[in-house]
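Deliverable D4.2, example record:
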Amino acid sequence: MEQTNNVTEFVLLGLSQNQELQKTLFFMFLLFYTVILLGNLLIIVTIKRSQRLNSPMYFFLSYLSFVDICYSSITAPKLIADSLVERKTISFVGCIAQLFGAHFLGCTEIFLLTVMAYDRYIAICKPLHYTTIMNKGMCSWMVAASWVGGFVHSLVQTLLTTHLPFCGPNVIDHYFCDVHPLLKLACTDTYIIGLIVVANTGMISLSCFLVLIVSYIVILVTLRNRSSEGRLKALSTCASHITVVILFFGPCIFIYMRPSTTFSEDKMVALFYTIITPMLNPLIYTLRNEEVKSAMRKLWSRKAISSLLHLFIYCVPK
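Output generated by the structure prediction step:
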């Protein structure tokens, strides 16, 4: 007998049911989302407009910032809007679209962070071959492969979920539609699909994380033979990337490297890779990078001077 889907919308419980706390969350996450947009846009514009920031590292960083903007936009606007209403609902189609977008962009970010680690490995361990290996064509191919890999991964997750029957209840104890909370609501046995989710999302997160750890161990071993100045510069760049990797991969592994079970802590943990990391990325990559800070000062000081000149010319009486 064929099972049908009787659910047309889902009710999200969000981060809290307390009305006073929700008002605080509204202003807090509105601020976070604004920082995400402005911070990542600042990095993208600075890299695109600065002639000094034309290395593969900054090429990948600009795409990482773009993915961060898109990724946070999947969940943050809905989270902010839901903080103002008592009953938080999302249509079935909207829920599936949010699931697809979150996994598509989240997995793309995982692959981009792995590619950035490979770039640092080649730059430090094989400096004489760096320009040959990391040429423009190779960098573009790596970015394209990251997008395709994220799309294929998300497509698998979404197709597995949409083929499940949902006949009620329709309450999701989360602030966005994710695969584990949806599997919990399905009116059928989801054990096998839960294992596939672990093998898909969990193993991608874990395997990429292990690749990153091994690459940085090799980098640290290689740096022992470098001068103190070169070692400090390389370590500064790598430290920024390692910080982002830990903040992003740790929560992902915690949530997706287990069967389809949910914990009350999952919502708070998910904030790290959906909002906190995209917000901190611009700060981490700029505060620890003198080249980016210098390029920002030069670019935006020129912009400010140009704006003042235009304003002066406009205001001078004819």
